[in-house]
Write the structure tokens for this entry.
Amino acid sequence: MAELGVWVNSTCTTDIGLDRAVYIKQSFKRLHIAFVVCIALSLPVLYGQTEIPEWCRALPRADYKSLQRVPVSDPWFEVYRLAPSVFAIYEPHQSEETISYLIVGDNRAMLFDTGMGISDIRKVTAELTRLPIVVLNSHTHDDHVGNNWQFETIYGMDTDFTRENARGSREDAQAEVAPDQICGHLPERFDPKAYATRPWKITSFTHDGDRIDLGGRSLKIIATPGHTPDSISLFDSANGLLFTGDTYYPGTIWLYRPETDLAAYRTSIRRLAALAPRVKMVLGAHNFPVAPPSVLPHLVTAFETVRAHKVPATPTSVGKATYKVDDISFLMHAPESRP
């Protein structure tokens, strides 16, 4: 297009007159603008989207600039080193913005959640460590167990909810790849129509208080039911790291599904708040991986404020509402349907 402008300047002004030259220049300019606009409007369609989802417009989250990014070969994931031998594996292209954690010891590593199962998390972990990996899930909702099937050693909480979800599911998984749930484009070889959570085999059942030795690093399982019956947190007390799964993360916390138990959730977050003096970093399972320990007692206060009906409900969809206290929010049943 620039060459055409030069041709108009050098040729048209001398051979066909100034007025006609100006007309031609303006015509090329309009053509150029139309071409650029057309391409811009076509990009979402080329990537399988008719419009950009609202949640996607807020990405990338500015706070990630403060973290140390680790390059990996799969563009579906972003990996960040949060502490020595601790990696956050983030999936920013799906609305859950799920975060799994690879925690590496001297003898083996633990993968705390395996993400959506949309792309190959095992390939990513192989780029981060050569040690054998054991999988443990913060809970067994589909967005945290999607790649469980790729691993041989999987620990599971000894609950009926865990055993049922280990069979796999399709309906919940399909909802995760609806057009408004994807930011950008899906992996090249991924077939959204066939997407489902594959079954996996639990090789060992775990319980509250169990410790898992990785060699030079010991992790304690803390049962934190509420979000689900099998929700757990993971405490690396020697390093002050508390992995909280979906019991806490810096985003709207879901507490409305049939398996949610609000009384159990209250007990669980109080238990975590009691650990705050021993915690240096809180690591949740969505949106952004790092929060200060002060968030733990604040979470208790916010939840108690909501349960005391001191917070107005903001309706979000049929039967659901958001309750916000400062920077903590919960998605729960709307007032007329609250248990």
Q: What stands out?
A: Residues 18-46 form the longest helix (29 residues). The radius of gyration is 25 Å. DSSP finds eight helices and 17 strands in the chain. Residues 256 and 332 are 5 Å apart (CA to CA).
